[in-house]
What we know:
single chain, 18 helices, 73% helix, disordered C terminus
Amino acid sequence: MKKHSARVAPLSACNSPVLTLxxxxxxxxxxxxxxxxxPDVQPAAGAAGPESSSTRRKLHCCIRITAVQVRKxxxxxxxxxxxxxxxxxxxxxxKVTFKHFDAPFTLTWxxxxxxxxxxxxxxxxxxxxxxxxxxxxxxxxxxxRFFGDDGLTPKVFFTKVAPFGLLWILTNYLYLQALRKINxxxxxxxxxxxxxxxxxxxxxxxxxxxxxxRIVAAILAIAGIVMMTYADGFHSHSVIGITLVVTSxxxxxxxxxxxKMVLGSAKFGEAALFLTxxxxxxxxxISIVPVVxxxxxxxxxxxxxxxxxxxxxxxxxxxxxFNILVNxxxxxxxxxxxSLGIVLSVPVNAMVDFxxxxxxxxxVRLIAVSIICLGFLMLLLPEDWDQCIIRLSTKLRKRDxxxxxxxQAGTSTGLNWRGRTRTSxxxxxx
Length: 430
């Protein structure tokens, strides 16, 4: 049995394009393989055999890494489509559900209860894929170490799990409430601001690295919020809806940053157990709230037979699929693909709203949606994006330089030409 590895310290909340609950331990293995193969394949001077052998090894390693990257890129395309369809589909279906059953909190409670399926599905995958199969009790006990040496105690539950459960419910409830007030395009676009809020909170709370490009992205997100409010003329109905979705995005950012600060990063089994506990706690402790709302006629329906179970199960299933993709999709592809799927749901919702005649695409709204999406994409840039651009421009400049150096080297002596060539080759190899 493998020993339980230590949790990753929450040094940064914005290192990955999507701040997920999970981490992939095998993610750096190809890079480590390349770094390890360097000292072993350095040839001795003047030995032709070791040089050809090292060349073959390097070529084989490059081909292997390229195949892995192509596979992850193909999975990334599929991930973009799945994330976009599940997120946009759940948003549109929730909007339709409210026409038949206007009960946002009941829908939130029902969808959150589906989180109980995370750990059972993970354990089925563990039995199918893992070479070291464990019983459900053994796997559960090992995953519980994520909460500390004593496992999941009542104190740990009420201090480290229950607050995240409340933030989860608030995020989803406010998002669904916003759908009752404004159209799905505005809701999905404004919710993309949560990435900017994650950066601001991680910069303040987690002392994350300051980046000017991300500050600009946060400013664009705030400007988009103001312009979105102006697009409808500051009517009370739209202002309330925008306030609700911005608050929902803030709760989502707070959830992610606090998780990083309090619990760190979780492996797949630990994340599945955490989400299962959130769903179970929601069912045990929050079930009384929909009953109270029904008795007080806040979320009332004439008879249980009038409940549109098909719509409820559809929204819950799409949200469940979306959470699986967001939290566990990094096992097969790049986190950027997941982020692209989220932001691409905005034009998908816009197309649906346009053909259903539920939105007026004026100039202010188009500009607001565009700058919010632009800010979201700017936040996907890596921390060393400026250095990457400098290196790329340097390579392009060297490639465009005329071959004057080669002609000058040809007029010199043969010994000097060989010495310069050997020196330049050694410099390039570093």
